[in-house]
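REVIEWER CHECKLIST
Item 1: Sequence provided? yes
Item 2: Single chain? yes
Item 3: Sequence as submitted:
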Amino acid sequence: MHGAHEVLQAIAIVLCVAAVTTVVFQKLRQPVVLGYILAGLVVGPYLPIPLVANQEVVTTLSELGVILLMFSLGLEFSLRKLFSVGFTAGLTAVIQCSIMVWLGFVVGRAFGWTTLESIFTGAIIAVSSTTIIAKVFDEQGIRGKLRELVVGVLIVEDLIAVLLMATLTAISTGAGLSVKDLTLTTGKLVAFLVGLVAVGLFIIPRAMRAVIKLNRPETTLVTSVGICFAVALLAQSFGYSVALGAFLAGSLVAESGEEKLVEHLVQPVRDMFAAIFFVSVGMLISPALIMEHWAAILVLTVVVIVGKLVSVALGAFLTGNSTRTSVQAGLSLAQIGEFSFIIAALGLSLKATGSFIYPVAVAVSAITTLTTPLLIKASGPVASWVDRKLPKPLQTFVTLYGTWVERLRQAPRRETLGAGVRRLIRLLVLDAVLLVVLVIGTALMADRMAHFVEVQTGVDEDLSKNLILGGAVLLAVPFILGVIGMARRLGSILSEAALPARKDGKLDLAAAPRRVLLVTLQVGIVLLVAIPVVVVTQPFLKGVAGPLVLLVLVGALGVAFWRGATNLHGHVRAGAQVLVAALAAQSHSKEPGAEEHALDHVQGLLPGLGAPASVRLEESSPGAGKTLAQVNLRGLTGATVLAIQRGEQSLSVPTAQEVLRVGDVLALTGTSEAVDAAKALLLGAPPSVPPPEPSPTEETRAHG
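Item 4: Structure as written out by the authors:
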């Protein structure tokens, strides 16, 4: 128990030093989060500076910062909004966590750590820090689709972390993890979430509306914070994180419709305790431990940044997000935080890891916390650079893929989630489970079975073992082929739902896009199944057999994808000629605003090209007089220019150096959101969905 004097002293030291460092960092135009971390280093126990704060007191107070930050984040995400990004965020989080667990395991084994230590390392680097990202997003004013996607991924990651901790506990205690135990753990988590949301929706929104009617700000603040702490405590009592409970509390309060008022009242309290949280992170940085384990810290830091960038961007893109949003999400999530500390501490308490794991986790978290504001700030230019460097066929593909996913989401549920689809999904899961059982069973029993064969038949034990492993490989082939075949059948059903074939015997102009979509979905489904299989079986295998099989599968499918993307690029060039003809036919029309509807009648003829729309550049248009490279339309919005009608002159698939002129009519394609944002960017009108703001360096980026 800490005395009042000790608590007051800790708060005074922390806030005074944090005030000085944040003022300095604001003057230097640097993120204030970095100032808080520097303040933590100053008041921490590892530097010879006579301003040491009691670390236990600061850590206790920092927990309040986590709770209030998560509550504020929940206020922005009503349950309806959270469910709307659930599918995209869920798949992205599963892909990201699976890849990161595997990478962490590989790094641990490369450093000679035990199997358990390597598994814990994978879990430590798998989950990003919601608290850190929420603060940086607030500081940099990031809103819109990117924020929704990232927060959705973070919430799913927190749920995955709960399952990881249950799994690691079972493995470390020697009890093993049965399907029954995992199902029970998952069922309890789902029951808690459903029960809390169901009861909370009935009570909390009504209670908040009744309190707000009293028109007493202090009463509203006390009630809001009370609900926040109560739900956080409830979550903790069920064995889940206070951060998850606080987020759900915020989402339930948001259902009252008064979230803006509550957020305004809570903000000053949240900011003070959030500052203490980031100072507490800085206090954990030990220069001596960093020097002692510098190699592991450096490698894991690089793995976290690069691995999360690639895995999150891959998952986000496969679920229908633009290249820009996917890359920005990857860079935003490139750090680890509070859950990593919890998992590292769990390993120590279970005696499953050495004492070095915790300081390594803290150091990697501290370094990636320092890099997070810089990475998020640089994410726009990096995304534009990636878009510019993509080969032409891939630039065409990434623009149209979002439109296909959009159409897939709009398709009737009986086509996308019908009995046939559900049956294929069950068969996919069954093949994956049987493959995991076969691999793990063979790895655990091969030596014993080989010895038994030698005793019974006299065959050499090494030869017997090789024969057993060869037999297991042969048995695994049907399951691998089954996953590939089921993925193709499932991809075929979904691609047909997004781009239906013509039934009247006429030329099927959606055939080329449908082929590319089919292969892309097949690759995505194979990855979604195979990556978790590799992650689960890797600790039982020696060498790189699992990843090598996965690499061969993806490589073979990648060749088919590239051929399809190349054919798609040719298909788009041919389709652009149709758009040019449509624009030319309307160029002589006297009807006001005829250009806006010039492409309406050709959308049905080009089902694979999204929903092309036209826009005329006026004298006031910001895009007039600039090249397409300078406008950077595709890089900033995800839409692309397929054709330009300029008086009597027509251009199909213009180059990046084409200068836009007043009076030009542009044919745009992309998702509905991308086209709206592109029109706003070209005309300077407020978009229905605001496009990302270009940075000064983006004016020279590649053509959209």
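Item 5: Key structural point noted by reviewer: The chain is about 70% helix and 5% strand.
Item 6: Recommendation: ____
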